[in-house]
Specification:
- The chain has 379 residues and is mainly beta.
- Helices cover 11% and strands 37% of the residues.
- The protein contains five helices and 32 strands.
- The strands form eight sheets. Strands 19-18-17-16-20-21 form a six-stranded antiparallel beta sheet. It has a five-stranded antiparallel beta sheet with strand order 4-3-2-1-5.
- It is elongated.
Amino acid sequence: MRKFKHKNGKDVAFSIENGYRTELGEFINARFIENSCDWVEIKPIPPINTRIKIIETVDGCRAAENKEGVVTDEKPTDGISSLNFLGDLEAFNVKIGKRVWRIACKKYEIIEDIPVGTKVVDTLDNTIWIKKYDNIWEYSDIFISKCIFESEIGEGKRFQIVKEEPKRDWEILSYRANKKIGMIPEYTILEKEKDGIFRNHKACILTISTFEDKLLNNSNYNIHSVKRLSDGEIFTLGDRVDFTLSTNQIIKEFSLIGNHISVISELSKDGLLVIKKSKQVLFITEDGKEICSGDSYYTVYYKKYLGREPFLKVNGEFTANFPLDKEAPSCLKFFSSYEAAENFILLNKPCLSIHDILEYGGINNIQRDKLKNLVKSKL
């Protein structure tokens, strides 16, 4: 609710839905109150320790206008109180420098405290200033200081707050030349070293070295690998990753727009923060299932190996964490489930004689002869 007081010192009007109503019940149109020189808005008294800039005061305290101060409960300094035209309830004490004024304000601005370390740019010369303490700001390049009042900072004013870029959740680790550049061969990799400079020591006689900002703006180089800082995962061109809408896609390109890195494949595009590495297929089982790192599997020996008899039992459950070694496939069969391994033993373990089969019946002489020849070939 807004409140206005007439210059006669008696009438007070309070805002209502369609205008203002005086204490005597008289309705007054809003434009007659708000645009009149005879009515003065009574602003609420700011809390103690609030920083304000005094814009306009009631007659008797013009010297305080356009000054900054702090609302205080200290007693006014002798000889500098305002005439207090609106009465004691609308006046408050403001400390400006070392002196305390009692002021009845028509208009003032509350100054929000700007944190130490905030950067502002001077629109007159584009210099950057950093807040050190109170109203003291330091020039970022040559370490000189000056006083900047916070009322001078803000939209449409001389000093503008520098909006800091959001913290990156990524770090570019390497760039790759996308064509031959002088003595630098195509696909040369420049890797980031501890000093932040990207170098390659093998491309030519002279070591190639440059800064990231130059590589970002150089169309001859593309981002080759990136680290996601939230979990330390590193992504490189050629890696297989899972996107939101597709899986097991090969990274073809990294795209940097503003402070955001996108990862691009032939079919998909996603932000670096949402992709994840595809599981590496370590091998394919006899029953046709792809086994990745962390998946479980079972084995069956089908040849004698280090004293182990073939088709003796199902081995497992094991957890896959590396590709098969060179010797394992020659004596083992791999399965994705216990049931599949057990069925393999049932169908392949030699446990019946020709006599057992003939006793079962249903075999004619031609089939019997073929069966005998088959058994002879395996003896």
